């Protein structure tokens, strides 16, 4: 029997970027907020300080900051003809756990979507005709425009003290930035990161090949900076322990130092850690949520009544919770009906390794998560898709994120991965190899989706989330085309050997790490038959449930998701504060 | 059984870290702890510490020693040794910092910053301005290769809570203040991280405090991207005194240090 | 090959001595200091104190690991402490299945679905090392050893219910981990793995170096708990944590 707790106004599931930000804004707007976090408490001091943090085995290989797959995971299959089996270890992606969530161990590559990304179906239809979109794709417009989100992108970039070079300032193109980006209301709050030799070689080669290189926007802060909440961020030391690690230097924007520290003492704010939400409870008529039931630190069950529930867990687990709580209709891949679990997407990556065979010293261990140079020429619809037979694209970049030797020991593909040959190749190439990478979009199909597993359960007895996913033909074609373009730059760098490797030439695998960019499953939109939440990210059927995170993306863009996730978060928080709270109701008609 | 016992002995040696006492070839054991600059330069780590941009030569070292002693034509108006001593131990009054075994690149950069005025200092600016780039490099290499004893501080009064607080700031920083740990950048136990991060272990407390204050009040502005400014801003007087007291008591040269250990084993 | 219980009460474990020339046992110490020199040509024996492995297993694992990373002018895997490293890993929570979802049914999956066996890492090693296909592995010629590992890597050989590729993947990964991880975990003795590639380790501040092109960054490595010239006392540290 669950212990019933006193009512709160706002119940927030998850203490990452979105949950803590929602708590900050709503607590400051006078609302009592309770944040439930399934993981433990942690903080820069003492938990993220180096040298202890700089232990590649513990954090980079054993994933001490990530979710515990011994207790809870998901099951996976490539298609419905297979039996989904548990992802028994972390591999392809690394969801977080604990205060700050995955925002603690991200790289800090902070992007906005292209304006056309947010209205992808309309855009391709207008420019190339409806027939240009492959018929198996279930891609759709987001229901929100770039202009509506722009102030929120801008604000989050200030929260993170983002460094970069503006390419489009209020419609005016500025040299050195991204010529393809949507108009910005302000330049980046900080200058770009420094430039490494690998980035310089890429920049020169890209220009030579007719591309438009610019510095990657970075939430690894480049100089002393005070964010709008009061956080003082320090300059990045380029230590090379960013993704998979926490930053002990106060230099990588994360939800703990940027948000939590500035709300923790507010009496309207309460954080409960080691609290796993079992389900969202609904009113008898099903038209609103009444709170949540969770298992606390002591292993007991609690019922926490609340006026509204914000789902701010990692995207996959938001979908899981919606399926378990019957918030929205589960997606059925056979009929194509239902919305929760629909349009799961990922990211389509490839690389072109350039081996310089000792002719350069890149010192890859001097790195930062968002230290890189990028070309956006092959992203989104920045290039002519006429007759190509696919939609989407990706950015091409050289990044110098780290030289941690277990993870990064590049050797040519023909070299044996063990024995004397491996050993010789390892020391020959460690310091003189770079990779020209493609970070590609991921389009949605009817057969790629999330639902509940019929066999396997987590440690609390709940069915696991089941992922059915493989790379769509569209994305394979995109990868092939754009990787070849990236290879042009790689080949112009005067290396001894260029080797291309595309993820999307065969089946998607959950084993090798690719990226923690899982999107969709609880997508936003303006049509309740094809979206799980409306354009304000409010559940169509339960007006006091709002959803946050990359699960909202109708399909995945060619960028890292955090900037878009947080733009949407502030957009939703804005709608809650300025519209919903005064008159709680469905913010769009059409609820079933 | 005898063999097994031998193996245990080896393990004991290994784990106690006292390798040199086992049966290494005799020349190793005969090597004196105080190595010559040449011997030190043969060690990659020390050579790296002593290098500004190019390898340190015997001549460069000799020239650096001359500069330190004020003996070069057109050299420093005041010999380095008159304040920093020949061994670079400085002065415990704290006006003159310990610079022995500092990374040469760091010392070289400071001399450049004094000369250009980005680290203004009434004494050092004119001295640095009189030195050529080559002389700055040489004297930096000289002090990078020169160890010194940490003078006895054992008679000083010890404020235990203050030192505890300093040790905590050094090792993990402060959540309340938002201060990262000193050793994040200043190397193991504050021994410095060549080429660019100076030693803190054994540094005079008053000097550490004065520099933190200088950053806080914008008197010193030559730290890259304001990294020390950001930290000093968050520190109060007691925090500064705490790290000063703590690091000044770290007896750098009585602890195993990379340079000395390896030199000795050679 | 000799085994015995140690005399130290707090270090209760087994000792395996790999190789047969006892006088070179001490070269382990020399190795730790003189990793740059050609001492490796001499042929050295390695003393390993095991928590989990039996001496026979340790000897076999050393032979396997030394084919993954053999000796050249830099130490072999076992000389760099990799056997100790794997032993500690298997004795730790990770060896017992930390981070491994162990609920059944354990069905045979596709390559894309990843590891699906019911064995924890420590069970996997025990079963594989005890399997007939690896009987006497340590006494085989190098060519024969390489052939067997190659068969595993190509998945043409199974060790009981363990497909060769599964064992090979685990072995290769753990050997590389032991060779290149921080010495606090028991491998990478005297930072030999880091020195070999030029990785400076845990203490990292490159704000003024990151944009110096082609800089020769020769700083000796330092680890979380130790620094160059101080061979890591991996076993003791690991035990302290447990």
Task: Specify the overall morphology of chain B.
Answer: globular
Structural class of chain B: mainly alpha
Radius of gyration computed on alpha carbons of chain A: 23 Å
Mean pLDDT of chain B: 80
Strand residues, percent of chain B: under 5%
Radius of gyration of chain B, taken over Cα atoms and rounded to an integer in Å: 20 Å
Derived from helix and strand composition plus strand pairing, the structural class of chain A reads alpha/beta
Key phrases:
heterotrimer, A: about 600 residues, alpha/beta, six-stranded antiparallel beta sheet, globular, C: about 240 residues, mainly alpha, two-stranded antiparallel sheet, disordered C terminus
Quick structural summary:
The complex is a heterotrimer of chains A (592), B (266) and C (242). Chain A has helices spanning 17-28, 44-47, 56-61, 120-128, 146-159, 197-208, 255-258, 315-325, 419-429, 473-491, 562-580, and strands spanning 3-4, 8-13, 33-36, 74-77, 85-86, 168-169, 172-173, 213-215, 225-226, 232-233, 269-272, 276-282, 289-295, 301-311, 342-345, 348-355, 372-375, 394-399, 433-440, 449-457, 463-468, 497-502, 519-521, 545-547.
SSE topology sketch:
The complex is a heterotrimer of chains A (592), B (266) and C (242).
Chain A: E1 3-4, E2 8-13, H1 17-28, E3 33-36, H2 44-47, H3 56-61, E4 74-77, E5 85-86, H4 120-128, H5 146-159, E6 168-169, E7 172-173, H6 197-208, E8 213-215, E9 225-226, E10 232-233, H7 255-258, E11 269-272, E12 276-282, E13 289-295, E14 301-311, H8 315-325, E15 342-345, E16 348-355, E17 372-375, E18 394-399, H9 419-429, E19 433-440, E20 449-457, E21 463-468, H10 473-491, E22 497-502, E23 519-521, E24 545-547, H11 562-580
Parallel strand pairs in A: 1-14, 2-3, 2-14, 3-11, 4-21, 14-24
Antiparallel strand pairs in A: 4-5, 6-7, 8-17, 9-10, 12-13, 13-14, 15-23, 16-19, 16-22, 17-18, 18-19, 20-21
Helix pairs in contact in A: 1-11, 5-11, 6-10
Chain B: H1 2-16, H2 26-30, H3 37-41, H4 44-50, H5 58-68, H6 81-84, H7 104-116, H8 124-130, H9 133-144, H10 160-171, H11 183-186, H12 205-216, H13 227-233, H14 237-248, H15 258-265
Helix pairs in contact in B: 5-9, 7-8, 7-9, 10-14, 12-13, 12-14
Chain C: E1 14-18, H1 27-33, E2 46-50, H2 55-68, H3 82-91, H4 121-130, H5 142-153, E3 158-159, E4 162-163, H6 164-180, H7 192-197, H8 234-241
Antiparallel strand pairs in C: 1-2, 3-4
